[in-house]
Amino acid sequence: MDEQRLIAKRVAVFCGSKKGLNERYEQMAFDMGAALAKAGWEVVFGGSSSGLMGAMASGVMHQKGRLLGVYPPFLKERELVHRSLDEIYQVADLAERKKVLSELTIGSICLPGGVGTMDELFEMMTFNSIGQHNARFFALHNVHGYYDHLMRFFDQMADGGFVSDQILGRVVLEEDCQTMVKKIEHLSNLSGDH
């Protein structure tokens, strides 16, 4: 398998380093990791074992999937690096983390998270809109309607002429993990190419 093929099946997953208050978040993070790994996707994420990141990584490992972490050592006081990483990319800061995440993947999935998760999503969308990354999808794992308000905000930005249809056409909003995987595979032109 060549390097281009490997990159073609890599997805960045952004999510909280905390579990959140809704009990469903942690289970759905695990389920999303498992669904991606089962479909043959390599998962690239922040590398932490904390919160939803840890739950998602556990789902990947449960299906014996491949897990790559992009981790700045200054976070070690707040978040432990996940022990089951197949590869770790050590970076100096969060800006470099986002750059490496974009270089290694063809799209991203956002699970519930806070401002760090939103920062990662918006940076990927910005890279795409200025031609520095050609993401095929920006998927929002809409657990219990978590991203409903963000989708309305995207519509407002589009109505105001501030975001292109090309970018919004790559946004996927879905709660079901299996359906999400099918949708990102369709957008990636990889469906059935395992």
UniProtKB/TrEMBL annotation:
Q: What class of enzyme is it?
A: hydrolase
Against Gene3D superfamilies, the record matches this protein to: 3.40.50.450
Q: Where is the signal peptide?
A: none
Claim: Hydrolase is one of the keywords in the record: yes
SUPFAM superfamilies attached to this UniProt entry? MCP/YpsA-like
Name the UniProt record assigns to this protein: Cytokinin riboside 5'-monophosphate phosphoribohydrolase
Q: Which NCBIfam families match?
A: Rossman fold protein, TIGR00730 family
